[in-house]
Design goal:
heterodimer, A: about 325 residues, alpha/beta, D-Maltodextrin-Binding Protein, domain 2, six-stranded mixed β-sheet, five-stranded mixed β-sheet, 11 strands, globular, B: about 500 residues, mainly alpha, two-stranded antiparallel ribbon, 23 helices, 2 strands, about 0% strand
Chain lengths: ~325, ~500
């Protein structure tokens, strides 16, 4: 009778404890990824392609929730305040997760550097410096700079907004090259200013490869230089910034995966491994290639941390060097 | 010409896929429904369905929204003829002679002439879009910032001149829309405007909460507060649908005239279905040999304005599709639908997304054909709908609005914003202020500001850029002439007379 009682008790124990055990094994329910951009944006597509592969690796679905607005602060804060169990993550890019924490530090109700950790850098979208072909002879960066030097304050460049990374990038280039240009900010981004460039009203702008490819084919715009470390396979004749004599100038539009800082290290490790495996899969690489996106995961959690620190430090340096007044 | 045929074939190729046919049908059905039901207009419906298109292919979404817009022109006439109540503002004038015809036992003929006239007008207008959009878009490609700015000046002035009711109120509404459009981060300096320090407002006020609030919720509140109209249905009298030989002889020239005037007025900024219908009625009365027949059941009084409103509804797509400039509130919503999908409306849409453009054009003609089928044989069913109690209908609409707004950005603040704009919409209705110019101001204001500042930077601060460029100069002269014309007392009187007709 006693033996039966013990058996019953131990059975009960097993029954009662099994859900708790299942909870220990990560992941046991769908993972939510908050995104600071709308559906259909480049970052959104990068995330959804990765999600599909993660589902196969982790055996749990991955739900993307678009929370655009406030330079990314809405999505970042919601993630940072969520229960740190690895089920609420955030994907962001260089603007939302490196520039916003520097430029709009006091608009956060959390401490970005203390409360957010990176899981991995995911991918990047290469950027080219583009010029109009209308009444604009320069075909290389050196020719363009010489041309601009003769016309101080006369040439115009387009950027998607004051304080955006293309704005900073162009100001850095101007400073290093000793030229002076007028910025024109166009909220809609390249779709809103390609026409002005085609007409020759605006001469240069940074653009990602996906947007610029049809314009290059149509002969409306020409690429001067790429901001990537190596030349792009599609444009073997276009030199990198370093080759053109301006190393370190230009931002690569990256996307990264972030989690609340209090997430258990084991869970972060599981997620990191799964992400690396997903990004190395042929399916993701092919799908990214169609979008002109290059997969490139951090090799370890530590590498991811070092990378984000470097990005933040870099933007702190840039924003100190190039003063852009955003107060009025 | 070979190009034209190829483009049309491309359009039918995508428009005739089962899924797009399905969305055209849904759009036409919903359009007819809101057309038949007084109180809910196509602007409100398109606004409410806007978040839904977010989950569709851009083409399917546009096809559906367009179907609602021109479907409402068909449905509106049914209520006007049978109940003597305009289902839509654009069918206000149809009440005058359409309902008299119904009283004379000719309801069937009135419905037939309205549907067939609309179909003819729709076909012609679709052809016009296909013929004139490509050259217009080519001109649009030579538009830089100064040209766009001048075009918008012309557009806003035209919108005010052609709005019905008081000019002062129309100007005030445009300005209110403009102010609401300024909220958010200033693109040129990064400074915050009218955000009251709230980070949630740093991206500005969303287009969808504003449109759903003012047009959707505002109308619901207004309808619930006003006492229910007594509806005297004349269903029993719908019997013989065919026109007599005499009626046919009288109506076909009216259909032709209505189509012509509607096609022209639809393209104008601020124009569209309602203005076309009013103008169509006035024209019929002017050219009639015996104007005293009007108001007593003259079939031209139905054929003319009904053809005109449908032609106007269709051709108002031209400026939106070719230049990305909205002529009326529904087109402003269409632009909203495109931008949700990341498509920047403008002349490049036609070349970069030919299937989107031509698919849309082809679907318009298919939709018009569907509408004849939906409307004529099924007239009995639509009339039954007028018996649904409003309080039930509105609950469903409210819930739908809230879900729609929330799912767009997963943002609860926008739902609250929608409720606030709903109250504003009701207040505006009570003050007899048309909200449509406000929506135009909201869309065009920030665009105008951006293009003005862009042009000034391009010219290094020299305002002469607006008169040195020939296209810009021409547009500004046109705007000046329009202002002059509206200031002349003779024309002003005429304008008031036209809008009094209803």
């Amino acid at each position: 009778m006693i033996r039966f009682g013990v058996l019953l008790a131990s059975l009960l124990c097993i029954v009662l404890s099994s859900p708790a055990q299942a909870q220990d094994k990560f992941p046991s329910k769908p993972i939510k990824i908050l995104l600071p951009y709308g559906a259909g944006s480049a970052t959104d597509i990068i995330t959804r392609i990765m999600c599909e592969q993660l589902r196969q690796i982790l055996g749990q679905s991955c739900v993307v929730e678009n929370k655009p607005g406030a330079f990314g602060i809405i999505a970042i804060e919601e993630m940072a305040r969520a229960r740190p169990d690895g089920y609420t993550l955030q994907v962001g890019n260089v603007s939302t997760n490196a520039i916003t924490p520097v430029l709009f530090k006091d608009k956060f109700n959390i401490s970005y550097e203390r409360d957010v950790v990176p899981i991995a850098r995911l991918a990047d979208l290469p950027t080219l410096l583009m010029a109009t072909t209308r009444n604009f002879p320069p075909a290389t960066l050196a020719e363009f700079i010489a041309y601009a030097k003769q016309r101080p304050g006369k040439l115009k460049y387009a950027s998607p907004g004051a304080g955006s990374f293309p704005h900073y990038d162009m100001e850095i280039l101007s400073q290093r090259a000793g030229i002076e240009m007028v910025p024109i900010h166009i909220k809609a981004g390249p779709p809103g200013f390609i026409n002005d460039m085609g007409l020759g009203d605006i001469q240069v702008a940074y653009m990602n490869v996906a947007t610029s490819a049809p314009q290059i084919r149509a002969g409306v715009l020409k690429p001067l230089v790429t901001t990537t470390d190596a030349r792009l396979a599609d444009y073997p004749n276009v030199p990198t910034m370093a080759e053109a004599g301006y190393p370190g100038v230009g931002t690569t539009l990256w996307a990264g995966l972030f989690a609340p800082a209090a997430t258990p290290p084991a869970v972060l490790e599981t997620l990191h491994k799964a992400v690396v495996q997903a990004l190395n899969s042929q399916q993701v690489r092919d799908a990214y290639a169609k979008q002109n996106v290059r997969a490139g995961a951090s090799k370890s959690l530590d590498e991811a941390k070092t990378w984000l620190k470097g990005e933040i430090a870099n933007w702190q340096k840039i924003t100190k060097e190039i003063k852009i007044d955003l107060s009025e | 010409m070979g190009d034209f045929v190829g483009n049309i074939m491309l359009g039918f190729g995508v428009a005739l896929t089962p899924i797009n046919l399905g969305f055209a049908f849904v759009g036409c059905l919903v359009g007819t429904l809101v057309g038949v039901l007084p109180g809910i207009g196509p602007v409100a419906t398109v606004a409410m369905l806007l978040p839904l298109t977010f989950y569709l292919e851009p083409l399917s979404g546009l096809i559906m929204l367009a179907g609602i817009f021109y479907g409402a022109q068909y449905g509106g006439s049914t209520t006007a003829i049978l109940v003597n109540m305009p289902g839509e503002t654009s069918s206000v004038v149809t009440c005058i002679d359409g309902h008299q015809m119904a009283r004379n036992g000719r309801a069937g003929a009135a419905l037939t002439v309205a549907a067939l006239g609309s179909f003819f007008a729709g076909t012609v207008a679709t052809l016009l879009i296909a013929l004139f959009s490509p050259p217009l878009a080519r001109i649009g490609q030579s538009f830089g910032a100064p040209e766009y700015f001048s075009l918008m000046v012309l557009g806003l002035i035209a919108a005010v001149v052609l709005a019905h009711g008081s000019i002062t109120k129309a100007v005030a509404m445009v300005l209110l829309g403009l102010l609401l459009g300024l909220v958010g981060t200033d693109g040129q300096t990064g400074g915050a405007r009218f955000t009251f320090g709230a980070i949630i407002l740093s991206d500005g006020i969303g287009f969808v909460p504003l449109a759903i609030g003012v047009f959707g919720l505002g109308e619901v509140i207004a309808n619930l507060i006003s006492p229910q109209h007594r509806r005297d249905l004349l269903t029993s009298k719908v019997s013989n649908m065919w026109l007599t030989r005499d009626e046919f002889r009288q109506s076909w020239p009216a259909v032709l005239r209505g189509t012509a005037i509607g096609s022209v007025l639809g393209v104008l900024p601020g124009g569209g279905a309602t203005l076309s219908a009013f103008a169509g009625y006035v024209l019929e009365k002017k050219v009639a040999r015996d104007p005293s027949r009007f108001g007593k059941g003259a079939i031209e009084g139905v054929a003319g304005p009904e053809s005109a409103n449908n032609a106007g509804a269709q051709t108002s797509f031209i400026p939106m599709l070719t230049l990305g400039i909205p002529g009326n509130a529904v087109m402003a919503l269409m632009i909203g639908a495109l931008t949700i999908h990341g498509i920047q409306p403008g002349p490049q849409v036609m070349t970069e997304r030919p299937t989107l453009f031509w698919g849309m054009v082809a679907s318009m003609w298919i939709g018009n054909l569907m509408l004849v089928v939906i409307n004529l044989p099924l007239i009995g069913m639509w009339v039954q709908l007028l018996k649904v109690p409003y309080r039930m209908l509105y609950l469903a609409i409210l819930l739908f609005c809230a879900i729609g707004v929330y799912t767009l950005n997963n943002n609860a603040f926008e739902v609250i914003l929608t409720a606030v704009f709903g109250v504003l919409g009701y207040v505006l209705i009570r003050l007899e202020c048309e909200p449509a110019p406000m929506l135009l101001g909201f869309i065009l204001g920030p665009l105008m500001e951006e293009n003005l500042r862009r042009a000034m930077r391009i010219s290094s601060g020299d305002p002469m850029i607006f008169v040195e460029r020939p296209i810009s100069l021409g547009l500004l002269i046109a705007a000046g002439l329009l202002l002059l014309v509206v200031a002349l007392p003779a024309i002003r009187g005429k304008r008031e007379e036209v809008f009094k007709e209803g």
